[in-house]
Amino acid sequence: MPGVNSFRSTPSRTARGAVAGLLAAFAALAVAELAAGLVRPASGPVTVVGGAVVDGTPAAVKDFAIRAFGEDDKTVLRLGILLALGGFAVVLGILSLRYRRAGAAGVVLFGLVGAVAALSRPDSGGAADALPSLAGALVGAAVLFVLAGRAAPAGCPPGDGAAGGGWSRRGFLAAAAVSAAAATAAGAAGRSLAGRRGRGAVASRDALVLPAPASPAPPVPAAAQLKVPGISPFTTAGRDFYRVDTALAVPMVDAGTWRLGIRGEGVTRPRDYTLAQLLARPLIERDITLTCVSNEVGGPYVGTARWLGVPLSALLAECGVRPPSRGGPADQLVARSVDGMTLGSPVEDVMDGRDAMLAVGMNGEPLPFDHGFPVRMLVPGLYGYVSACKWITGLELTTFDGYDPYWVTRKWARRAPVKTQARIDTPKPFARPASGTVMIAGVAWAQHRGITRVEVSVDDGPWRDADLAARGPVDAWRQWSYRWQAAPGGHTITVRATDGTGAVQTERRARTVPDGASGRHSVFVTVR
Which 3 state secondary structure label does DSSP give 30? Predict the structure, then answer.
């Protein structure tokens, strides 16, 4: 019969083996997602394996991923894991046509990798976190074993039991359809369970009413926002604020169950705080610019928001903490996140009078989940990787000699004050403005030092002073503009800033690793 001959042909068998492998992988992931919904969403195999990949990736590669993919780096990583899993599944499916047990064992092996990754995560919840990977692997192995038998018609080499009982194409397709339908239902149930777990956190945020600050931020001067098309707004909207972190799944923390513990060297009165207790304290409101250490010269990973929070220095003092300059034994404050991330800040900087805070609000609203709800830490003047812990759940006083946080173990610097930088927002690189008056404009920042001067040079000519917007907070960026009489042809525009200490932005080029990029931002334009 033509149908049987086609089914028995080598290409047909190979295709069915590949389909069997992919369906087994789909079933494994779906059941794992269902199990993770019962255990906790962050224990899913793609999430834990992805986290292990992130942790094991060299700093230079991470830096490249951020430059190349921006905030889509985690999506690219997930896609890469799924593609690798799909390729592995195809190989196992084809192998299982002759060696069913070996193919099924390969699926189990992959599940064991996921289980080990789950148990090794810094935020591991214990042995239960291994269950999703193991459950998914066992189901996937069973699906592959059954489908491989149905995909191998009578008369094929028996191997370790691959020969079926003369299964028809219809039999294979029926078994495949049942497997796909069951896996789809399991995956949908898992997503529903995960969503139900997250709904409690969403409800807690929706119900949160932020109190008025005891120390409100002064109004931003109208002249701090220049009316230049293309310039970055003084205040960055939450939806536009950059996000750089290692969390593949954004933690959904219920504000009602959240706790913050303060422990460690020099903490004479260890404390635990609820969100309600923090909100009952006098809060401060400040306009603060945050900068990621992965921001290249002229890059997008910088933004300003109006933050509401608890002064961190007062909270630490309440626990008996003293800075090293006053005899305190700890010089490093380690912040711990619910996802296991650790960041280390100099205690001296946190307690030197700057507006370091545990933030609860951003631009007049509770923190978005992407930006650390319910509480995150901010220390003006320091790059985010040593100061801006999101989803914070603990503070530990220790020393730089005694403990290396997450990024320090990956060759980033222990101490990382923000470098003075200026950026050209308009005109954009390779723009083609008309000759005549062209407005050059952008932003400059040197948190905790402020910006006192910005200069522009065209084609390596003399430096000309730009006009500065009205002075805002010392911890926020400052806008600038320069009217350029542009002649036709190609031109290179360069900018530099001077901070409040009198230091001029260096021209020395340096990459982001280990303590932030340096150099001067330039754009090339062609004037028509």
Answer: helix
Identify whether the C-beta of residue 446 lies closer than 8 Å to the C-beta of residue 420.
yes
Instruction: Give the C-alpha separation, 181 to 41, whole Å.
Output: 22
Q: Picking from 122-131, 252-261, 448-457, which range would have the lowest pLDDT averaged per residue?
A: 122-131
The amino acid occupying position 196 is R
Please compute, for residue 266, the number of CA atoms within 13 A of its CA located in the half-sphere on the CB side.
21
Average pLDDT of the chain to the nearest whole number: 90
CA dihedral 498, 501, 506, 511 (to 10 degrees): -110
Helix (H, G, I), strand (E, B) or coil at 6: helix
Whether residue 141 contacts residue 102, with contact meaning beta carbons closer than 8 Å, is answered with no
Neighbours of 404 (CB within 10 A): 16
Instruction: Label each residue of 148-176 as H, E or C.
Output: HHHHCCCCCCCCCCCCCCCCCHHHHHHHH
Say whether pLDDT at 166 is over 50. no
Quote the tokens at residue 349: 């900087």
- Rounded Cα distance, 17 and 419, in Å: 56
As a whole number of angstroms, the distance between CA 36 and CA 31 comes to 8
pTM of the model: 0.84
Cα–Cα distance measured from residue 210 to residue 316, given in angstroms and rounded to the nearest whole number: 22
pLDDT value at residue 161: 44
Cβ neighbours of 54 (radius 10 Å):
18
The answer to whether residues 297 and 233 touch, using CB atoms and an 8 Å cutoff, is no
Among the listed residues 155, 203, 208, 508, the one whose alpha carbon sits nearest the alpha carbon of residue 366: 208
Cα separation, 282 vs 278, in Å, equals: 8
At residue 168, the pLDDT reads 67
- Residue 505's pLDDT band, with cuts at 50, 70 and 90, is very high
pLDDT of amino acid 82: 87
Is there a contact between 274 and 46 (Cβ–Cβ < 8 Å)? no
Alpha helices (H) in 159-237, listed in sequence order:
169-207
* Three-state SS at 520: coil
Angle CA 115–110–42, to nearest 5: 40
Per-residue pLDDT, 56:
79
Written as six digits, the tokens of 334 are 């380690």
